[in-house]
Amino acid sequence: MHSTDVFISHAGPDKLLIADLLSEKLQAHGLNCFLDKISMEPGDYARDEMTKAMESAKVGVFILSPEFAARKWTMRELRCFLRRRIEAIRSGMRPPTLIPVFYRLSIRECRELDPNRYWDDERKNIFEVEKFFSDERQREASTDTVKRELQELADFTGIENEVGATNLPGDRFGHDKRAHLVEQVFLWVKKKCEEDSSDEVREVLNASGQVGTQAAVTSTARCAVDKFTPCIHAEHNPDEIYLQLNSRGIDGSPNTCEARLKEAVLSTDRNSHIGATATGKGGVGKTCALRAIAHDDDIKAQFSGGVYFMSLGKDANVGRLIEQLCIAVEASGGKQVAAEMREQSELRRVLTKMRAWFNTRVCLFIIDDVWAVNGIDACILQKLSTLAAATGDIRERSRLLYSTRDSELKQVGKRVTFEPREREGNESVRMLMLASGAKPEEANNPRCKEAVSKILKLCAGLPLALNVAGTGVRYMRGRWKGEVSQAWEAYLSKMKSRNTIRSERPGDGYLLSLDATLHASLEIVESGMGSDAERLGQFSFRKIHRSLCVMKKQDRMPLSLVRDLWEMDYESAEKYAIQMERVGLVDLHYDKDCGWVRMHDLTHDFAVQEAQKEESVTVWYKKLADVCRQGRGLLGMTESEGREGKDAREKYVFENTYRVLKQGGCVEELKNLFLSARWVKAVIQRGSVWQYEEAVKDLNSFLRNTGGSESLLRDTGEEGSVYAMELMMRAARLSVPFCGESSAGIYFQLYGRIKHRAAELCSVQRILEEIEEHTPRPWLQPVSECVGRAGGSLVEQIVLPNIVYEVGMDSTGGVYGHYLNPRRTRITVFAQSPDKETKMTELGNDFETGSRKLTCGCVSMSKRYAVIGYGDGTLQFWSVSEKKVLWSVCGHESAVCSVAMSGDGKRAVSGSWDRSVRVWDVDTGLQIGDALTGHTSVVASVAMSGDGKRAVSGSWDESVRVWDLDTGLQIGDALTGHTDGVESVAMSGDGKRAVSGSWDESVRVWDVDTGLQIGDALTGHTSVVKSVAMSDGKRAVSGSWDRSVRVWDVDTGLQIGDALTGHTGGVYSVAMSGDGKRAVSGSLDKSVRVWDVDTGLQIGDALTGHTDGVESVGMSGDGKRAVSGSRDRSVRVWDVDTGLQIGDALTGHAGCVTSVAMSGDGKRAVSRLSDGGVRVWDVEKGSTVHLGKLKDWRDIVERFLNAEDLGAVSRTGHRRKRRKVFASRRKIVHEREDGSEAVLAQLESTVTWWEVDDNHGVFVAAAGKQVVIMKLVV
Q1: How confident is the model at residue 1254 (pLDDT cuts 50, 70, 90)?
Q2: What is the C-alpha R_g of the chain?
Q3: Cβ distance 570 to 552 under 8 Å?
Q4: Which secondary-structure segment (H or E) carries 996?
Q5: Cβ-count burial of 575 within 10 angstroms (0-12 exposed, 13-18 middle, 19+ buried)?
Q6: Where does the pLDDT of residue 269 fall: very low under 50, low under 70, confident under 90, or very high at 90 and above?
Q7: CA distances (Å), origin 205, targets 217, 218, 512, 1172, 1216
């Protein structure tokens, strides 16, 4: 038995009408469900099989009813899942998912279970009938225990029976309501299973190559579960830094900048929403204050979730911000979460994941040196403030602490301004003395008092200048051979010789005093080298210091790269860096056995200024570009796999390539790099898609601005390059969720997403050729459309904390709508402006009181009004800005299914289970005119034109109707064409066109005035593809639950001819003859049909005889014979030309026959049972030749089917083992010789059926509604 994906727990009365339907839908989607005895075979011991399924299922669905609560086995099943969940959480493993379906037992009833309330049709108490109160049952689980377990289940987010579905035979809407409920449950379970499968590593159980309707996979390992570990993630200040976090004045209030900042962070005042912002010019001590606060004992006591320090700087962009957020998550133990965050392309998605990770933990997030630059907007602080959402007790809330020099930034929290200290005040003296290593009283020593005083004046109270000066004095004191006090005068003379005061911003009146101290530091380290050392081409500290102008602000450069920039060995570079650190020119620190050089922002400005005076900054960028190309070159860095194992030098070069090449003027090289598939592959592997996207946008903007007009771009050939770069950027962004770190899997994604433009663009064709050349073998080359195209319609996604129930777009491009919390007690209206500012408004907490259920809602385009519909037919009209109910009316006789509003919010329209459409005046709350009637079933969806004069409605009666709201009349006849219930409708602003979506899985557009459908419904399979097969590597055939068979050209990926139709049930299996001229299909309609592929016609009548659904079919090499296996446990062989069955049915299997195959000459057949048993048949004699097991499949095929005929055998699976390529969920996997596995491709839907043709190197798979054709390149 396969591992169980979903365990469906239910009581008997709900089996036929709910549980069976749900199981069928999930099984059709490729999920393995356990549903009592249906999931077992003869010979299985029921209790053992149920226990296995309960203990292994990843998702448990509980269809709740009074009988569920009363019966022994159903409560045992629930008890098992609750226990497993607790055990998994304790052991750090992923717990099973529990999904309650509140079908005939509501949430309230689960929380307040009263066994005396429930009676059957014979007026007997259900719990007494089930012997719930017997001593035996009470010993196993008392009434209080059962109540407690149901209460615990009610705390899980589940699916409520909003439509009022019942099992009552007299309920005329019963079928529709149950179908709607099952669809809801199916979608939710499918979503949860797909989330689980993405966290598992699976392998195929096809030892020796098995035949099967799908690749049999089982869980072999789980990804390590992240465990939250609070920490203080911040550097310590050097010992010589002077700060007073706890300093108080006479009145007891803080009397230093850093003390006031600390108090603001610890404040519990409700007006202090998120913390504090430290402002002030550069070099005034903000960063040091933030570091000191991070390690303060009071801070650590209040923020039990840890303190996380992040640094940006003036050169930062959104990519750096995201990386800093990821590092904070990693520091707290969230390695997997950080990896997921790096895959996101939107900052708000990153913040959503980060907020979910830290959840309710109380943390302090410190972000140093924030600027509104390079895509970081002025509202960034408000966006980051979501990390400290205002929930719970103000004293137990996370806080954020920022520092900034940017006056354009919109600040949040309490503002604390840092200023230079008093020039000769006590603080300045203490800072200078502490940095110099001298005793405080030395400042008053008559022999050095005057020199100290003059140094203080020159430093102008600037903490950074005081620190550099003190550090320089310390260096000289340590080497001074005379009276130590004389070192002060010597340092003063060096300061005076280079005192060139410069201003940070012209005209702002704030003069920096840093230049003199930095020049003095360079004078100190250059002593003894001679003033002409640099001019004579000798080593110079000034030269190597200004070479660091190529660094990013607030960033660090590995010493292994610095040494190449300085053209010396590592030991020499380290020695000189240490000397410069000792005089305050750089910071040198070590991390993971690697040395790093860093500079203060203002020191970096100094290096840039000096470089501009001498050789120019561009010269140094060109030199760094040359250094980066050394060794394997830039593309050489793309050869290694994954994010791990990159040395610090290579990592730095990769992350800074764009900046270095652009600043160095190497635009053509940069363009070629971005048009390289190998480079983009490395971008994805290193989790740098966001940074890559920003770089491409910036480069394309640069090319357009410098290249002139669009016509000039076309003439120079740059237009194609610009578009190709944008296409690759979008392809990379779309590929991230579907590929791991293997090169083959990434190349598959990129190739499939851009190949549609190869015929038009030479740049794209060259990228494809590069992929074909450099992809490691084996790899899968997409032929048909295997993944979504890049450059399509998707622009962005807005991530919200709960399921969105309604969404709209206004005339400016702003998005609005509403969502509900899991318990459906609160409605939140959201609005996002075109510049991406999002506003949330919560509309109270009195929804779903008592028995009233909230069913739908709508927000007006103006965002001023909202209308809410309820299950009892009530409508509420809300003022969003005032957060209050304007009107509450009961206008429908049954549940309100859908509501919509006009653009100005003056009119509303509603559709209901009572089959009517009603129009409302929002200002008065009164109905306009009579109810609009005509639908013969539930009105599931309504929409309105912008001016409120027309409305459109869609119903489960399969029709769409358009209404004139002024006259109350229907416009024209009902719009028909859908073959199943209409679930959603929308209307153009002018009311001239309508669009509808249906359960028939099609979208149709209508001309309202003519009543005609515009264009055809979408073509291709419209339901799950259940089976695929191939012949000679030129053609493939597919069968679907949409009842059709389709034939495809393997070379082009296009459909050949029309769909082959005739089956009246879902097509479960297909096969082809060896020459590809005939196909055979088996269906749930119990028939087998043979098709002429060239003409598209059925050959003869349907082959009938099976008494249950046909699970599998096969065909001989010449197409003369076909074999079929059925749920009726029989195998039948057919003469295709005559349409007659050959001999009697081949019986002997004890269960459903899931797979069959036939030898090339049609004389022998092989069949497989669902339990793994294999049987070989002599077709002529009708007898069994051999009985075997699935693990011996390869030997059986080689022994009993002619080896030369293997190419004609349908789905033997034999070649899968030879190639060691197989499907596992959404992935196509290659098993290497050493037993390890590599993902060659990841599709967007689960693979339910697949086949490999080794002779022609073709892999065909059924994935969702797609037939995916790929070439296997070895």
Answers
A1: low
A2: 36
A3: no
A4: strand 993-998
A5: exposed
A6: low
A7: 6, 7, 71, 11, 12
CATH class of 232-419: alpha beta
Each residue's pLDDT tens digit, 60-88 = 999 999 999 999 999 999 999 998 888 77
Q: Distance between CA 1106 and CA 1125 in Å, rounded?
A: 9
Q: Residue 1143's CB: how many other CB atoms inside 10 A?
A: 14
Taking residues 624-650, report their average pLDDT: 72
Q: How many CB atoms lie within 10 A of CB 1202?
A: 16
Predicted confidence (pLDDT) per residue in 946-975, tens digit: 788 889 898 988 888 999 988 889 988 888
Give the torsion through C-alpha atoms of 696, 700, 706, 709, to 10 deg.
180
CATH of domain 551-638+647-665: 1.10.10.10
Residue 102 near residue 158, CB atoms below 8 Å? yes
Q: What is the 3-state secondary structure (H, E, C) of 997-1050?
A: EECCCCEEEEECCCCEEECCCCCCCCCCEEEEEECCCCEEEEEECCCEEEEEEC
Contact 747, 776 (CB under 8 A): no
Q: How far, in Å, CA of 693 to CA of 726, rounded?
A: 8
Domain map of the chain by residue range? 6-125, 232-419, 420-497+511-523, 551-638+647-665, 669-705+718-790, 802-845, 1221-1273
Q: pLDDT tens-digit profile of 506-542? A: 333 334 578 889 999 999 998 755 445 455 456 789 9
Beta carbons within 10 angstroms of residue 143's beta carbon: 14
Of 19, 8, 128, 140, give the one whose Cα is nearest residue 76.
140
**Distance (Å, whole) CA 751 – CA 728:** 10
Closest CA to 1067 of 912, 936, 1248, 814: 1248
Q: Calculate the CA 785 to chain-centre distance.
A: 22
What count of Cα atoms within 13 Å lies in the side-chain half-sphere of residue 923? 2
Q: How far apart are CA 660 and CA 646, in angstroms?
A: 19
Handedness of CA 1101, 1106, 1112, 1114 (dihedral sign): negative
Q: In this prediction, what percent of the chain has a pLDDT beyond 70? A: 79
Look up residue 718 and give its two tokens. Answer: 């740059």
Average pLDDT over residues 141-149: 90
Helix (H, G, I), strand (E, B) or coil at 1259: strand
Contact 1050, 1067 (CB under 8 A): no
Asked if 64 and 103 touch (Cβ cutoff 8 Å), the reply is: yes
**420-497+511-523 and 551-638+647-665, same CATH topology:** no
Report yes or no: 948 and 904 within 8 Å, Cβ to Cβ.
Answer: yes
Q: Please name the helix (run of DSSP H) or strand (run of DSSP E) that holds residue 384, with its range, or none.
A: helix 380-384
Q: Could you tell me which of 1117, 1126, 1044, 1114 has the C-alpha nearest to residue 1076?
A: 1117
CB 1061 within 8 A of CB 1043: yes
* Architecture, CATH, for domain 420-497+511-523: Orthogonal Bundle (1.10)
Cα(558)–Cα(654) distance, rounded to whole angstroms? 13
